Amino acid sequence: MRRRTQVLIASVVAGTVTFLGVRALTASPSTRPALYGCGEHSGLVVVGGTDVSAGGQRRALIQNWRGHDGERASLVEVGTSSDEQRSQLAAAEEARSCAYDVLILDAPWIAEFAHRGFLRRVKPEWVTEPTGIFAPVYEAGAWKGTQYAVPWNTDAGLLYVRKGTPAPGNWHDLLTAGYAAQLADYEGLTVNALEVLWNTEGLTLTGTVGTVDARTVERRILPGLQQLAANRAAADSRSDKEAETLDAFVRGGATSGPSRGLMRHWPYVFRTLTADPRVHGAFDATPLPGRGYSVLGGQYLAVSRFSEHADAAGQLIDDLTDEAAERTLFACGGFAATRPAAYGNPTCESASKDPDAPTVAELGRFAVTLKSALAAAHPRPVTPYYEQFSETFRTCAANVLNGHAPSARTIADALNAALAGRRSDCPPAEK
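^ that's the sequence the OP posted. Answer follows.
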């Protein structure tokens, strides 16, 4: 009989299950630890971050699903930030828990989870018409040529411009004017720093990255980070994550100064801004200026290696990622769809009764913007040690923002250690 060796602690608030932590108990060396809840099957469990789609469309798609044999599914939400979510999911998989059947993974986590043996390979029957998915988006679900995850929604950075604010034609104008960004010490800083680096100094630190030489750091990476520091609104955004950035932009109509009329954010806030009476109809969404290079984001669905119901979980993934589901996520939920066909005729029955929801014409124009942004989106470094890389890279970026830029050699050594899977520091330059 397998002994229970982990405990899943959860609370239910307003119908939302929140994962609070995993506590280790005594373990037998001859058994696999398990999270509480691995007993008799009572429905598939999907686990991931908080559902920020309009009207809870992701949760609704999961809860309304019915499998071929009548299976049902539920969503468990963990963590409040991408860093916390990765940590919680990795802890559960490290425990070899069968409590979760389908994992919602951010794009850069896939290499790590596949490398660590946490995921099952995608079977052909788990994804209908993969050729109907944006090719780079689908390919980001693979690791070393093997598909481990299917994209559920994709993402690309956009520039939101309040009416009356001049739209910058290039990054010099954007940085000079100042724009609200996500520069707190979390994954958002990595994303924003990469986008500035790519657009001002050229593409580097994208795709498969093995090592970084000091010459590249000196000529491209360090100047790119210094361009981020040149953002006139950087000081205002240093403690901001997605929510704070959005609030600064919404309040911008009544506040002067930098960061109030321009904002870098994700596609899902388009619906939020459309519904907000302080902003409705008074903003535009555009691709990032200049080259328009953006970080390719999004969430992917993968079957846990430790699920005891892999085939049913694969069927769930197939249904959640088909064209109809993708159209719902875009037209009703505000997410960027992974299939080009899902952007056609973007109607939403539930939204049609909401006077604050975007019109079909507005969604049509937004679809054009999204597809343009996705065409210029690039992946973050693909590595099983992405967590170490991101922590190290944003530490280097923070020191540049603080006016204490490390040397090119220091940055190169720190990034190379991280890419090799070692914890690394990126100390500021000595005064």
